[in-house]
Specification:
The chain is an all-alpha fold. The chain is built from nine helices and no strands. Helix content is 70%, strand content 0%. The model has no long low-confidence stretch (mean pLDDT 93).
């Protein structure tokens, strides 16, 4: 059902959809959706949280914090010019400027992600994969806005070369952490 939310919002925006539309496209009753989520904001928060779960291929990166971080950071490179999750994300971000519950959730999510990236950087330092001179918190505070900025650039200019440039810039930043 959350895939339906990503798709509808990426196409119509948050204001352009209703719980009824989500229910109809997902093949559920509005009562079922309302029972589980209560309101549209809670449904959107659940969709965002679900999208931020670790990727399904996460286990293959176990043992290398640097590779785990690379997997997450390069996830900010759109797969296609119409990547529905990131289009959902930008709509969520915009709506959170007008909705305090969503805004508070977005702040919490951002800080949690920043801490997780700092944790991976610290673990990569301890594993000898990254330079010992790095400040994990500082690097995470620099890396996450870079990833977000490059993501916005891809959404504004959804050309393959812009995606390739984002991949190269993020990869180069991660490579600069290496010993």
């Amino acid at each position: 059902m959350l895939e339906t939310v990503y798709e509808l919002i990426s196409e119509h925006g948050i204001e352009g959809i209703s719980m009824r539309q989500v229910a109809d496209v997902a093949g559920l009753s509005t009562g079922t959706i309302n029972y589980h989520f209560g309101n549209k904001e809670s449904l959107l928060i659940a969709a965002l949280e679900s999208a931020y779960e670790l990727p399904s291929d996460w286990e293959q990166y176990r043992g290398s914090p640097a590779t785990q971080l690379r997997r997450l950071v390069l996830g900010y490179v759109c797969r296609t010019s119409r990547d529905r999750f990131w289009r959902f994300w930008i709509n969520y971000l915009a709506a959170s400027t007008r909705n305090e519950e969503m805004s508070a959730h977005q702040r919490t999510r951002y800080l949690r992600q920043e801490r997780f990236w700092a944790h991976l950087i610290r673990d990569a330092i301890l594993a000898g994969e990254f330079k010992a001179s790095l400040d994990p918190r500082h690097e995470a505070e620099q890396l996450l806005p870079l990833a977000h900025g490059l993501l916005v650039r891809q959404l504004v200019n959804p050309q393959a070369e812009v995606r390739a440039e984002a991949r190269a810039l993020l990869g180069a930043r991660l490579d600069s952490f290496r010993r």
